[in-house]
Structure formats: C-alpha cells, structure tokens
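User: I'm putting together a small comparison set for a docking exercise, and I want a reference complex before I start. The sequence is below, and the ligand is fe (ii) ion. Could you produce the 3D structure with the ligand included, as structure tokens?
Assistant: Of course. I'll restate your input first, then give the structure tokens for the complex.
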Amino acid sequence: MICAGIETTAHTFGVGICDENGNILANVRDTYKPKAGWGIVPMQARKHHEDVAESVMGQALSEAGISERDIDALAVSQGPGLPPCLYAGMNYSAELSAKLKKPLMGVNHCVAHIEIGRLMTKLKDPVTLYVSGANTQIIAYTAGRYRIFGETQDIGIGNALDKFGRAAGLQFPHGPKIEELAAKGRWTGMPYVVKGMDLSFSGIVTEAAKKLNSGEPLNDVCFSLQESMFSMVTEVIERALAHTGKSEVLLTGGVAANKRLQEMIGIMCSERGAKSAAVPLEYSGDNGAMIAWTGILAHKNGQKPLGSEPEVLPRWRTDESEIPWMQR
Ligand code: ATP
Ligand code: FE2
C-alpha cells in the first residue's frame, strides 16, 4: 500500500510518500517565509500553499518514481493548526481523493510528529518530548491515547528562543544561533518555572532580555536561558518516566535538534537506565512523510476515512485522537 501525506498546518506545504513497511519514498516541502520581523500572516501562508501544491506533489511523485494512479490512500493533517492553512491542505487533498477515488485519512499533526519519531528511532513506547515553535508537550501512551503529562502554559520553547533572538537582534533562525552562542557562555542565573507537571517560558524570555539590556554578555544569557528551559523539561520528563514506568524518551519537533537538550536528557536517562533518541533533522520539523506514515497506521487499524465534506480541526489536541495501533 502506498500513501501520500499532505502537511499544511502552518508555514510548510509538504508532501510525503511512504509504503506500509515504513519506507519513505519521497519527502518534499516548500516553506512560506514571512517578511523579516513578521510572524506568519495566515492568509498569505494559505495562498503560498495553494500556489505550490501541484508542483510539490509533482516533485514528490517523481522522487518516489510513481504516478498518482499508484497512490492507494491519501492522508492530510486535519489539525491542530492555523485554519486558513488547514483549509488549503484539506481542500487540495479532498479534491485529489475524489479525483483518484482513494480514501482520505485525517491525521492529528502532533500524533504524526510522534509516529515519525518512533519509526525513525525504533523506540517502541517512549515518553515523548514534543518541542517545536508553538508546542512544548511531554506525552506518553496510556489507555488508548497519547496522554499529555505536562505542557507549556504559555509559549513553546521554540517561540521563546525566537522571541529572545529577535530581542537580541540575532539572525534567523534563532534556535541554532542561540545554541552556538550558548556553547561559549556560562551560568549567570535565570528563573526556573515548573508548576506541577506544567511549564512556563514567557517570563524567562522577559528576564533574559532584561539581563542583556543591563549589559550581561550575550553568550552567558544564551547559555543560562537554554540551561534553565532545558532543565525544566528534563525534570518533567523524568517524573513522567517515573510515573509511567517507561524506559525510553523520544525527542521530536524543531527544537529536538539542539545538542545540549539531547545531552541533558541523555544524562538523565542514563542515570535511570533508560534510552533516549532524537528524530533525524529531516523529519523533526513539519513534513509530509510523517502524515503519510500516520495515515498508513490509521488505515491499517480501521480508522474511517473522511467523508465528502471534511472539516478541519484547528484545536485538535494530541489526547483527542484514538491510537489503536499502540494497543497490545
Ligand atoms: P509546530 O507547528 O509543530 O509547533 P513549528 O513549525 O512551529 O511547529 P518546527 O519547524 O518544529 O516548529 O520548529 C521550529 C523551531 O525550532 C523554531 O522555533 C526554531 O528556533 C527551533 N529550532 C531549530 N533548530 C534549533 C536548535 N538547534 N536549537 C533550538 N531550537 C531550534
Ligand atoms: Fe509541527
């Protein structure tokens, strides 16, 4: 079975193609870039996605060496995300599904980040740290669903890094630049905000910007900012491991690329006899392959395809999606 997955929740229009054994045959994307200093303008992102859809699909088909008639099923990220972006993907996918007379599976974007991570790292039943621009969640499978054990109460770590990067006048993308600067910094103190199992980052960003304005070296502020935020998530992951009795940690989402974050979680895991792994860079940000693979899992496990007038689900939470393939 060959499935084509379409991702359009935010800035990326992605098409991935994979088979039922988890071989990724193609993974092509085109990303909308807002003008300097701006965030995503949703209607512009939608237009971008509509404009590039045909050509990205064409490239993916040729990379996979197949024609559209070889597609057995389609999958689309139904949510969560920005409504105009979601509609661009849903309209395109629904039309293609009607034209090819193939089923269209609705996939939860966050679940897809976890599934591509499990596929790539071969971890079986991990506690997952999903750290992207907008999201910071600590997730684990129990009783039929991926449950959220802890999450940010305000912004995600990626957005926190980007916000500080903008305040410091750094070049984009801010996360990798801060990582580079932090490598030459030392600890000068930073707030640490864990509330039960939840986290809060926006006050830390304000404090980091204040420290910079009061003349503290940029390297030190970057180091302290990273150390504090990464220790906070490591603490919550450790408690999720202790509570669930699981022995694996998966890092996924754009911030999972950070080597210091990987190292901290690696140390905590080795002290507990647990294993940790990060999803490879190509699959850590938004991509179509993760939607295609999750579409295969959903299809094989009896999820009903979307009907003729499918809805988008802009606020669809990770724990609102049934995960029958993890049952044993
Ligand atoms: P989502 O919609 O799932 O929240 P997103 O599109 O906002 O995802 P991703 O593409 O998963 O986010 O990740 C982008 C974020 O990752 C940015 O905020 C960027 O600064 C951050 N990032 C990328 N590389 C690194 C790094 N090496 N260290 C820290 N942060 C990083
Ligand atoms: Fe994402």
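The chain has two domains: 2-113+286-327, 124-283. Residues 9-10, 132-135, 156, 158-159, 161-162, 173-176, 179, 253-255, 257-258, 285-286 surround adenosine-5'-triphosphate (ligand 1) (CB under 6 Å).
User: Thanks, that's exactly what I needed.
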